[in-house]
Description:
By secondary structure, the chain is α/β, with parallel strands linked by helices.
Amino acid sequence: MSTEETQTTDESTTFDKLNIEEDSVKVQECINTLRELIEGEENLKVKTDDKFILRYLRWSDFKPGLAFHRLKKVYRFRARNKDWFCTKPPSEYETELGLNIHAILKERDSKGRRVFIVKTANIDADILTPQTMSHLDDLWLESVIDEEETQKNGLVIILDLAGYSWKMFSWITPNNSRVACIKVATVTIRKIELHVVNTSFLLNASMSLIYPFFDPRVLKHIHFHGEDWPSLHKHINPEILPEEYGGTGPSIDYIEARKILYEKSDYLMEIFSLGLINYEEELEKEVEKPEPQKDENVDEGAEDDIVYSPF
């Protein structure tokens, strides 16, 4: 077994998921261990403060080796697919943001989760591309991933497919589907649910093309509701949802919702600047590295509810 694989699977500390952060001493030990692993990787330019490191530890059940393994895989994937990742500040996307495609609700749901809404009816497929849409996702998601409450409680996404068009259907090429599905699995939040509403006749055709690219652990977190709002409300309490989703909460104020992006513009640019220093060197390592063997001692069940794809 390779050193990297050993670091990933041979974790001496087992945490109770319900009390995972109650032992501050052990949590700090995990932080220090992951920091040492990161600092020993010369080809990796990332932050090493406690807040950034906790993001990856919470994503990985506080297993430093697994967190380090995933962190490297995330940045390798970014290096391979640079055009899918945002590198510009929100001010460079004012036209696209003004289409009111995305919004994060001000109030969290009853489980303490952020609620992220994506409305395909507002997508102008004549001026947008799948890559630009991916950049907009980055702006919104990265603006809340650093929040402790979001890392602990998770994120819920409402994908509103009203107005889903043939032009958007044409975006579903094998490569676009593969990259998009893997990218979903690199979002460093441990608990993510996707709720699809206002489905159309194009949905079945679209999903039949996309499904093969999703990891099964991701698929079990996707729920389809059509226009059945009581079904949606079983997962998201209606008090925070706008009337268009059967809720009693306020209407979406897109201008107000976008303020978080501009307030965190400097932070976003810092996050977008992180990554591999020399991708070619990393490719050489991948070629030289032997195929890892399955470790029979790995507790795969402990990771079963982590939305993660072994890309």
